[in-house]
Amino acid sequence: MKTIYSLLICICCFTVSVFSQDSLSTRPLTEFEKSFSGAIDYPDQLLERCIPTFTVMKVKFNKKGELESLDFSDSAFPQFVQEVLAKKNKIEFHYLYEDALKLGMQDNWILVPIQINTKIAGRCESTIIPYDLENSLLFAGKPLIGRHYLYHKFVANVGIGVLYN
């Protein structure tokens, strides 16, 4: 019985230490989020109908740390994809590369879950539907294969007639 308790204590200590290492530096995450939010104008066609976005952005860098490939899961609306692709040069993707490099994951695809909630005061508020969840890990109808680094989830709120912090 003492062995089981000792094992559980060791597992808990190890788990805590792993998570604490992950949170040592949040600067790249914060800077990437600011850059993404500042560059993207959420499409009016989606906002005016309270349509949220729940997707996974798939990013790949070359050996120099430059953006090589940018793709979105099947759950992304075309208007959102077009907006991001049109503004990709204004987004500071190098912060994703810096984080991946620290962990030795720079050669893998980096997956960034993105959730953008919408709301119009007194009229509607968005809801993520099962379709979005089911298709968030499909790319061109196929599941992900290969090595990937799952980055932190990016969450934003956009609206008309509402204030967000």
Overview of this protein structure:
The chain has about 160 residues and is an alpha/beta fold. It has one domain. It has six helices and eight strands; from the N terminus they run αααββααββαββββ. Strand 3 (about 110-120) and strand 4 form a beta hairpin.
Would you spell out the secondary-structure blueprint of this structure?
Blueprint: H1 2-22, H2 27-39, H3 44-47, E1 53-61, E2 67-72, H4 78-87, H5 94-102, E3 109-120, E4 124-125, H6 130-135, E5 138-139, E6 142-143, E7 148-150, E8 154-160
Share of residues in helices: 25-40%
Distance between the termini: 49 Å
Quickly count the domains.
Answer: 1
How many DSSP helices? 6
H/E element order: HHHEEHHEEHEEEE
Largest sheet: 6 strands, mixed
Given helix and strand content, the structural type is alpha/beta
Could you tell me the strand content as a percent range? Answer: 25-35%
Gyration radius from CA atoms, angstroms = 19 Å
- Principal-axes shape call: globular
**Tally of strands:** 8
Q: What is the average per-residue confidence, as pLDDT, rounded to a whole number?
A: 83
Unreliable stretches (pLDDT < 50, length at least 5) are 1-24
At a glance:
The chain has 165 residues and is of the alpha/beta class.
Keywords:
165 residues; alpha/beta; 6 helices; 8 strands; disordered N terminus
